[in-house]
Amino acid sequence: MAASPTRDDFDRYMTPNYSPQQAIPVRGEGSRLWDQADKEYIDFAGGIAVNALGHCHPALVGALTAQANKLWHLSNVYTNEPALALAKQMVERTFADKAYFCSSGGEANEAAFKLARRWAFDNFGEKKHKIISFRQAFHGRTLFTVSVGGQPKYSEGFGPIPGGIVHAEFNDLDSVRTLIDDDTCAIVVEPIQGEGGVTPATPEFMQGLRELCDRHQALLVVDEVQSGVGRSGKLYAYMHYGVTPDILTTAKALGGGFPVGAMLTTDRVAPSLAVGTHGSTYGGNALACAVGLAALTTIDTPEVLAGVERRHALFREHLEVINRKYGVFKEIRGMGLLIGAEMSDDFEGRARDILPLALEQGLMILVAGPNVLRMAPSLVIPEADIQEGMARLELAIGQLVDPS
Ligand SMILES: *Cc1c(COP(=O)(O)O)cnc(C)c1O
């Protein structure tokens, strides 16, 4: 029998663009995971806001295995039942009239940005191509999406980058007013900046962006790759704001761990994605859409969504208790089960140091930049797992504060 893969194999065989923790998880159930040595972990990371129903949820395993025994893939020369059913469900449950499928968040945004440009081109001519996005924003890793994203470190060294993109300050309408004009085709915004530090948009900001778009005949593109599919406590975070997007992108939690992404839009905009303008080999893949439909159907219920709000309160309470003892956090923020704890001045830039300490205690957790500890657990994480995870986090923070 071949020896089991080891962490050293990562350095030996994989490109060095990641630096994973030492332990290698081999199986998971709900919000618990076990590594090669059978050590157990509580999962507050959720595969970075992906495993919205935890690991191996029966509804997802059931949908995946049923579809695996029927039909996997056809190409877009044909359509298939799971894709049609998922599109119908998404249209019925959101502002959208039409859905486009792909396999990741970056691809959903790539489609969204191309559609915004093409729609403006079709209706107003090529001069209307300016895209306004925000500093600290994250929209994916393709060259177009890192360029629209607001973190220069992700596009540095990959130039020349696409032009016609400008960046405003998040939650600052005046900074948008100085940039927007009639040549603007789209404003692109995350309702909660995820990678940028778990910062929710204010209602005035989202509503102001909608008004500015309307005044300048630009499209409002809402990137809900991280905030969508129940994460915020509503099916999509835009629903908290009383604002209707023109285009919405969704991925991560949509597949609950299976790669699937979608772009949603209206009948006013969709015609610009005419036959042949855009596509993706795997977009609408039958396995992906079958799992996506099961995830969406399971999450989009009053019980699960109310449970997200309840768990948000629990997370906050626990974090505040830890903070009263150790004073490591300056602010605890976020929506639903996307929660950020910003490090206090004494621990500035040290969020990442908590990751190995937490892992040692049996807890998986995330950061969002150098200064924010991030949690994006399963939306149905049992309360006992929250308690146990928080007890482990407290031990890890204790070690951060007093390493002796
Ligand atoms: C993760 C993320 C993306 C990129 O998604 P991928 O599936 O990694 O391509 C885009 N936008 C936001 C807001 C994200 O959080």
From TrEMBL:
Binds 1 pyridoxal phosphate per subunit. It catalyses: N(2)-acetyl-L-ornithine + 2-oxoglutarate = N-acetyl-L-glutamate 5-semialdehyde + L-glutamate. Pyridoxal 5'-phosphate binds at F138, D223, E224, V225, Q226, T281. It comes from the Bacteria. Keywords: Amino-acid biosynthesis, Aminotransferase, Arginine biosynthesis, Cytoplasm, Pyridoxal phosphate, Transferase. Its main location: cytoplasm. Homodimer. Its EC number is 2.6.1.11. It holds the Pfam family Aminotran_3. N(2)-acetyl-L-ornithine binds at R141, S280. Belongs to the class-III pyridoxal-phosphate-dependent aminotransferase family. ArgD subfamily. It comes from Salinicola socius. The modification N6-(pyridoxal phosphate)lysine is found at K252. InterPro entries: Ac/SucOrn_transaminase_bac, AcOrn/SuccOrn_fam, Aminotrans_3, Aminotrans_3_PPA_site, Class-III_PLP-dep_AT, PyrdxlP-dep_Trfase, PyrdxlP-dep_Trfase_major, PyrdxlP-dep_Trfase_small. GO terms for molecular function: identical protein binding; N2-acetyl-L-ornithine:2-oxoglutarate 5-aminotransferase activity; pyridoxal phosphate binding. May also have succinyldiaminopimelate aminotransferase activity, thus carrying out the corresponding step in lysine biosynthesis. It is found in: Cytoplasm. The keyword Acetylation does not apply. Pathway: Amino-acid biosynthesis; L-arginine biosynthesis; N(2)-acetyl-L-ornithine from L-glutamate: step 4/4. PROSITE patterns: AA_TRANSFER_CLASS_3 (PS00600). One of its GO terms (cellular component) is cytoplasm. Its cofactor is pyridoxal 5'-phosphate. One of its GO terms (biological process) is L-arginine biosynthetic process. This is Acetylornithine aminotransferase.
